[in-house]
Amino acid sequence: MATSTRDMRMATVILFHSAYGLRPLERDAAERLAATGHQVVTPDLYDGRVAGSIGEAVALRDGIGWRTLFERAERAVADLPATAVLGGFSMGAAVAATLWAKRPKTAGLLFLHSIAELPANARTGVPLQLHLADPDPFEPAEEVAAWRAAAAETPIALEIFTYPGAGHIYTDPTLADHDAVAARLTWDRVERFLARL
After folding, report:
1. Distance, CA of 89 to CA of 187 (rounded, Å)
2. Which helix (H) or strand (E) holds 189?
3. What secondary structure does DSSP assign to 45-108, as a single string?
4. CA pair distance 16, 111, nearest whole angstrom
5. Per-residue pLDDT of the chain (197 residues; tens, 9 = 90+)
6. Helix, strand or coil for residue 118?
7. How many of the other CB atoms lie within 10 Å of CB of 23?
8. Which residue ranges form the domains of the chain, and what is each CATH number?
9. 87 and 16 in contact (C-beta within 8 Å)?
10. Distance CA 51, CA 59 (A)
11. CA separation (Å) from 183 to 16, 21, 23, 120, 171?
12. Is the pTM of this model over 0.90?
């Protein structure tokens, strides 16, 4: 588990990696947010393994299994504040959402590149910021629309940002998905989101 720290703390942020594993994307994001005063934790749910393609990523994820991934995630955050912000990239958003149901005091949620299930016990007013490519081949428009409708029925404070023409994990400069303009805008919005918490 990698942690970036700074003398002044604003929030504790947990960022779960995508199905590719813990890569420079997550480490660079942690450094960026730590530079603004946050403590950022990036758990490695794959024990150092990293995929080089989407096919390898899916095989790696499925080989480990969701149950094991969620157990590792729970262990990784067990000693962190109950108010820590939960976030994740693509698959990591699903991990964050699963933990959310068990950590209802979380100060906020960051879903990057994926929608994820909303818990029934969501606290009134808890902020959730979602960033999605538009369109996104892994998040069909009808599923996103249904998710938006379901989210509107919950007490959460939802912000949704979409990025036309961007690829799925467009914040990752090592992937063909990358969109530098969309990535810069995303991180500006994330920083403002965290500053409000």
Report:
1. 13
2. helix 180-196
3. TTTT---SSHHHHHHHHHHH-HHHHHHHHHHHHTTS-TTPEEEEETHHHHHHHHHHTT-TT-S-
4. 10
5. 444 434 445 899 999 999 999 999 999 999 999 999 999 999 999 999 999 999 999 999 999 999 999 999 999 999 999 999 999 999 999 999 999 999 999 999 999 999 999 998 899 999 999 999 999 999 999 999 999 999 999 999 999 999 999 999 999 999 999 999 999 999 999 999 999 99
6. coil
7. 17
8. 2-196 (3.40.50.1820)
9. yes
10. 9
11. 17, 19, 16, 31, 5
12. yes
Rounded to whole angstroms, the Cα distance separating 85 from 39 reads: 10
d(CA 166, CA 138): 13
Residues near 100 by beta carbon (within 8 Å), at least 6 away in sequence: 86, 106, 109, 119, 122
Q: Which two tokens stand for residue 168?
A: 């799925």
What tokens were used for 65?
Answer: 């299994």
Amino acid at 38: H
Q: One-letter amino acid identity for 116?
A: A
